[in-house]
Amino acid sequence: xxxxxxxLLGISGGKDSAALAIYxxxxxxxxxxxxxxxxxGKELDETYQLIRNLExxxxxxxxxxxxxxxxxxxxxxxxLKMYGGYLPSSNSRWCTKKLKLEPFEKYIGDDLSISYVGxxxxxxxEGYISTKKNIQSIFPFRKNIxxxxxxxxLFSASNFDLLQDISSNVDFGEYEKKAKEIIxxxxxxxxxxxxxxxxxxxHCVAPFNQLVFTFLKFTDYPLxxxxxxxxxxNEDVLVRNDIFRILExxxxxxxxxxxxxxxxxxxxxxxxxxxxxxxxxxxxxxxIEWVWLYEQHPDLFFKAMQYEKEGxxxxxxxxxxxxxxxxxxxxxxEEYIKRSERKQKVQSPYMIDLIDDSEGEGCASCFV
Length: 368
Fold this sequence. Notes:
Layout lengths: L5 E5 L4 H13 L5 E6 L6 H14 L4 E3 L9 H8 L11 H15 L4 E4 L18 E4 L9 H7 L5 H8 L8 H9 L8 H9 L3 H12 L23 H11 L10 E5 L2 E5 L14 H10 L1 H9 L13 H4 L2 H18 L25
Parallel strand pairs: 1-2, 1-4, 2-3, 4-5
Antiparallel strand pairs: 6-7
Helix pairs in contact: 1-2, 1-10, 11-12
């Protein structure tokens, strides 16, 4: 049975989600995709510029979602007051819940929905998976486009016989014999689920996708109600360089905060930038990124500093007031240069080669 399915793609202001929006419009024009962005009110201007550029390219309005819509305050400030001034941290990410996830899930409601997520083929992380049964995540940039919860069900012991039946109707081509052997082989400590998936995907991506898509018919996932799904034939694997190419060739451009800036300390030159989108005071920033913010956007740095008070700081062991003392800035820059030299990365026009590039596009995996 076919039901109406909403297709959604969240724009965080970072490179990966922006490139995914361009990629999906170009490769799958038959899909009617809704584009949205969760606006915290604390984004960099470059983030809003990227959204405007994307709207021109897509020819569509990107819906801006906000928490605390009826409040007279910006969303972050509203919830900060509600949490008694307790700043978010890696141990208490209320900002993710209140400013990202809840507005997104409210926007979807109970509608059957596919959420497209821009995790690249060179990243080793899963990303957001909704606990709501009506939302299913798909990862078009990866060889394995399916979420871990789907894969777990597919290869569960309870579905072993069903999987054998389904696989008998899937054409694995010249890899048929080997694929069937892998599917029949039980999981154990010597042959994990990941190894099983990787073995199947090594030679038969599209047949594997067909296997999963057929299996979904026996579940209550949103795609179980679809008679067809164009990404079943997808065999693309996109990595970081592909992302920059897509953004440049489309004319949308790379968010300006990725562009490296040169600095000098004690006769040595270094280059810094911001590694992710999200709030300008994101607590996941590295020390060198806080220095970047202080030197490139001092007005925003001092706004971030105003949020700190006794016992509530963005960093676990250091206040922003202490971080910008001249000796401390020099120390951070020197340590960063040494770290960069040790990495001996290939030169790139973008500083994310040297700064952590695991883009949850905001605070780690806070974007869907």
